[in-house]
Amino acid sequence: MSEHDPSQEAIKRSQQSIMVSVTALLLLCTLAQCDVGIEPEKRRSPREYRWSVETVSLPGELQQNIKSIWGTNGKNVYMVGHSAYGGGEMWHFDGTRWKPIKLGGSHGGPVTNTFSLSGIYGFSSNNIFVVGDIGFRDSQALIVRYDGKTWRMQNLSHLGVTKGLATVWGLSSSQVWAGGGRGRALKGEILFFDGSIWRRDSISSSVPEQIQVLSIAGKSLNEMYAIAVEIRPGQGGDMKYFLKREQNGVWIPVDSLQAGFQRFGNRLWTSPSGKLYSASIDGVFLWNGQQWKKVGDRSVQSGWRPVLFGSSDDNIFYLSSFGLYHYNGTDWSLNQDAIFTMWGTWFYTAGWTDGYEAFITAYKLDFPQHTIVLHGK
What we know:
Blueprint: H1 6-32, E1 51-56, E2 64-73, E3 76-83, E4 87-93, E5 98-101, E6 115-124, E7 127-134, E8 140-146, E9 151-153, E10 164-172, E11 175-182, E12 189-193, E13 198-200, E14 202-203, E15 211-220, E16 223-230, E17 239-245, E18 250-258, E19 267-270, E20 276-280, E21 283-287, E22 292-294, E23 307-312, E24 315-320, E25 323-327, E26 332-335, E27 346-353, E28 358-364, E29 371-376
Parallel strand pairs: 14-18
Antiparallel strand pairs: 1-29, 2-3, 3-4, 4-5, 6-7, 7-8, 8-9, 10-11, 11-12, 12-13, 15-16, 16-17, 17-18, 19-20, 20-21, 21-22, 23-24, 24-25, 25-26, 27-28, 28-29
């Protein structure tokens, strides 16, 4: 029988006390996000983002055109477009890599005919709308909705003949608009979803029938706006219309211009505060309820079909052929990194940011024509 050693008991109690203290410290540091040897990722301001470039494509794909991008955060981003390889195409980014989402019927998806995708917008990770067209020659409107588990086609059969859609936007999941007019003969189309059923809004007879609705945005049910274009070959350039929705669901023109006179462009964007912006070849403009006013105290150099996106009135990105501009609510800053001036090699199509990260999509102008994603954070 061994003798009792008080010193060994003391050492044991001391070791147990140290272990308890270390465990408690680690728990507190975890809750308080202390630095315990792992340096947290630095959150940079938008003008300090470090940008990466990634090519996204399916094996054997020769031509691809991503047209729209949207997300809830940097680990949940979707982009949609068209592929000559498989028709409509959708990709999802989980924070690490891009993965294709198969919507075609041959892959078990809900769309059983030839289709293409053009726009995406959502309200949460389980409430997302995607629009495009279905069919080959006389394509009709296609709307697919995601509930967090399943992508389902929306029923539009009660509307009769519809036209392909180019854009989607909403105030809530029970106030959603989809616009377009694609097909063999352009004819403006604006559909409205009230949470239960899709119906057709009307476009004023003062606007030509042969138009395509390119963009929709707004701040309330009584302040909804759209941009439409009338293609006029050989007539001095296309005609653009800035439309406002009346309470009776009729969209009327409140401004118009001919190509070369750019108070507004092809894109609308509404900030969380409700301010309405548009990007044209002459810069970024703000709608004050009666007219367009140029944003910022500096002349922003632009180019053909610029990209506009942001997360607030003091975090706006504007990508032109001169580079990536950023507006902080006071002034514009220009980033002329080579990846933002590839217009002769890439065609930039869309952008999205949550204020912490930013994504810009483009596609190569040579073949194979793959998608390029620029990611800044």
